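Chloramphenicol resistance permease RarD, pasting as requested.
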Amino acid sequence: MSTTTEHTELTAAQKSRQGVIYGLAAYLCWGFFPVYFKSVKVVPPLEMVSHRIVWSLAFLVLLLTWKGVWPATIEVLKRPKALAVLFVTTILIATNWLVFIYAISVGEVLQSSLGYFINPLVNVLLGFLFLRERLERPQWISLALAFTGVLYLAIQYGNVPWISLLLALSFGLYALIRKVLHVEPLVGLTVETLLLMPFALFYLVQLNQKGTGIFLTHGIALDVLIPMSGIVTAIPLLLFAAAGKKLRLATIGFLQYITPTMHFLLAITLFGETFTHTHLISFLFIWAGLALYSLHAYRSLRA
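Structure tokens follow.
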């Protein structure tokens, strides 16, 4: 009996370690996204998103074949309601990709990091609004702190940090809808990419006919980096899906701060973006909100 228990605990510990490795790999990949997209910033954001869609689909088709999940994909394609919902998530994830690439191309990685810092709190708010999840006092205070940070930034600079808000809202709504739909991550991502494929391909063909496309016209380095966007997009999503099967939500909740922290550090060190006193105060409010939210989530799960 004791040996069986020890074996079970060992298996659980091994699964947890594997999950942490997968989770760290996923969030580290996403954390280095600004470096990759900075290297292809000569490509206009809409063109880059179109390439990302085309090459992602090519890579996903290979993965579907390797994992043998074509039947599940075809089944989803035969369900009109599921397709309608996935069309909405397709628009949301495409918007998120486009805004993120735009932010990097115009030197606003700091704003993108802000968006992903407030994303967990946006998820809490969306759960309250759409899933009728009850919010406790620490969660309300966390939301108030984050709102104060964003509002302070908007007042000081005279404009709303729309990049941050759009990134947080688009990804938050995407996660909310995908949670309700219950479609396997690889299948869902493939169907979403497939729905975007006609628009992306049409746009790229139009660029090619006009002679304004970047691919195959600006040197071998770009000709290699652009197709890599498919692998860069799909791999962290698959790693994240694998981590999600092995880790508790609390662990994933803490790991998710790796990506915006890396974006933040890259923005103020490698990319030389200006981090002002106003930024500091705004981020401190948001970090305080995240700290309170994380502490409350950890205590609740332990209880």
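Note for the archive: Residues 26 and 240 are 5 Å apart (CA to CA).
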